[in-house]
Amino acid sequence: MTVRVRFAPSPTGMFHVGSARSALQNWIYAHQHDGVFVLRIEDTDAARNRPEWTEGIISALDWIGIERGSYEGPYFQSSYAQDHTAAATRLYGEGRAYYCDCTRDAVIARTGNQHTGYDGFCRDRALGPGEGRALRFRTPDEGETIVDDLVRGKPTFENKLIEDFVIARSDGSPLFLLANVVDDMTMRITHVIRAEEHLPNTPKQQLLWEALGATPPVWAHVPVIVNEKRQKLSKRRDKVALEGYRDEGYLAAAMKNYLMLLGWAPSGDREIVPWQVVLDEYRLEEVNHAPAFFDVKKLRAFNGDYIRALAPEEFAAVCAPWLSGTETIPAPPWRPEAFDVDTFTSVAPLAQTRISLLSEIVDYVDFFFLDEPVRDEASWVKAMKGDAAEILDATADAFEALDDWSAEPLKAALERVGLERELKLGKTQAPVRVAVTGRTVGLPLFESLEVLGRERTLRRLRAARAAL
Ligand code: GLU
Predict the structure, then answer these.
(1) pLDDT tens profile 250-266
(2) pLDDT for the residue 44
(3) How far away, in angstroms, is 10 Cα from ligand 1 center?
(4) pLDDT digits (tens, 9 = 90+) for 126-140
(5) Predicted confidence band at 47 (pLDDT cuts at 50, 70, 90)?
(6) Which of 291, 408, 430, 438 is least enclosed, having the fewest CB within 10 Å?
């Protein structure tokens, strides 16, 4: 039997990091079992049916290495409406489902319980289809449904506690529980790997599989990911969009590695591992049963490690979107023609060791490509006090007198300026750095000045002095 897994997102306009994790878990499982990965877009909610949302899903998958063309699909749930209807009709015809016209209020009035499930009132009323009548699945009165779950073991559900759930609305349209099962059957899915929030649906879905005469899949319900308050990550509260992380400058490799470490660890005492190790070693059976904390700080530190491990030309390549802007990444503050590749290449290694997000590259290098540095007010206030004016004057004079405009002599000159005033290098550097780069933190100063050049450096020092 060929293993067939599927990733079945409902389009929502953004790609949740938890979805990325589910997709990767399916992808890895398929890889490990020479199986097939199927992409199915669950687009039956008409209000959520925009083509660009599907494109967003496909390009998010692409970004994490599940590339178009290397999987089956995308299939669209909306194209399988006839199969859903046929299944509903069959279940009704075989007495496994019945029509019900109870309103929620009527059920509450009968049971006196706000939170109750359906009470089975219409089970034996033999209603036919009609206005205001939903189709409910008749769950067995006895026995139990045992779910075979790679992560959770064998969760067991007493059938008499499973309510008769709705499988089709009164207009005939199928509900998630039914459409999802019918599609999985049509697509010959053998393993359903998804988030734990779907576990309560699973006994119901397994009963549907059995009622429709098919062998249920093996399930794997993976604990959800939570924020620092142990709340399920939500798009209203937390930063969850994969695209947002991408546009801030997280590397796909770092993101993938981090996502797989949620609730799992590779062999040995290591966290950062080549993707191949994850592909070989990841085991759903080993995933921790507790919800996993999505620690953005840790992810960011991870990203920094990944950035530092890049070869120089790789680093330059991954920075490119931030140096020019894209549809989703804002353009940098300099005029495009002011950008100089050679300048960037010479300072890129200095930036590479300092940034943990690719988007930070802009603030590190902008002063090379702007006529005037961006003046960060807090930095200015901090650095331009005390002896600042005198230091700027003296430094400009000392620099002007240099024959050799390179880092070492520049540093020596500034040290002399400080020494004459009994100041530490850091104190002397601060106003110079802010005058030239606009900020108190950044690339190593003297290497930067060497690249920036004599004329621009002196002009900026004098301009800052004049502004004091
Ligand atoms: N469309 C469902 C979701 O996004 C699919 C759940 C499943 O994988 O069965 O939650």
Answers:
(1) 999 999 999 999 999 99
(2) 84
(3) 7
(4) 999 999 999 999 999
(5) low
(6) 408
Q: Which CATH class is domain 4-72+177-225?
A: alpha beta
Residues tagged active-site: 235
Q: What is the pLDDT of residues 139-153, one digit of tens each?
A: 999 999 999 999 999
Residues with CB under 6 A from ligand 1: 8-10, 42, 180, 194, 198
Tokens 């349209």 -> residue: 173
When the candidates are 3.30.365.10, 2.40.50.100, 1.20.1250.20, 3.90.800.10, the CATH number that belongs to 84-168 is 3.90.800.10
Average pLDDT of span 14-28 = 97
Residue 48 has pLDDT above 90, yes or no: no
If residue 75 lies in a helix (H) or strand (E), which one and from where to where? Answer: strand 72-76
Q: How confident is the model at residue 115 (pLDDT cuts 50, 70, 90)?
A: confident
What would the DSSP string read from start to end of 137-195? E---SSSEEE--BTTTB--EEEGGGS---EEE-TTSPBPHHHHHHHHHHHTT--EEEEE
Q: What are the sequence ranges of the domains in the chain?
A: 4-72+177-225, 84-168, 311-368, 372-467
What string of DSSP letters covers 366-383?
A: HHHHSSS----HHHHHHH
Query: Cβ-count burial of 172 within 10 angstroms (0-12 exposed, 13-18 middle, 19+ buried)?
Result: middle
Phi, psi of 156, deg, nearest 5? -120, 130
Q: Are strands 218-222 and 72-76 parallel, antiparallel or unpaired?
A: unpaired
Query: pTM value?
Result: 0.93
Testing ligand 1's pocket by substitution, the residue of 5, 7, 10 carrying the most ligand atoms inside 8 A of its CB is 10
**What is the rounded average pLDDT for all residues in the chain?**
96
The alpha carbon of 8 and the centre of ligand 1 are apart by a number of angstroms equal to 5
Count the Cβ atoms, other than its own, within 10 Å of residue 366. 19
- C-alpha 233: how far from chain center: 11
DSSP state of 401: T
Reference 457, options 439, 440, 437; nearest CA is: 437
Q: Which fold has domain 372-467?
A: Arc Repressor Mutant, subunit A (1.10.10)
Atom from ligand 1 closest to the CA of residue 42 = 1
CB atoms closer than 10 angstroms to residue 7: 26
Whole-angstrom distance, CA of residue 13 vs CA of residue 262: 24
Identify the residue whose tokens are 């034996």.
Answer: 124
Residue 422: count of CB within 10 angstroms of its CB: 7
Give the tens place of pLDDT for each residue, 399-446.
999 999 999 999 999 999 999 999 999 899 999 999 999 999 999 999
- Show the tokens assigned to 368: 């090379």
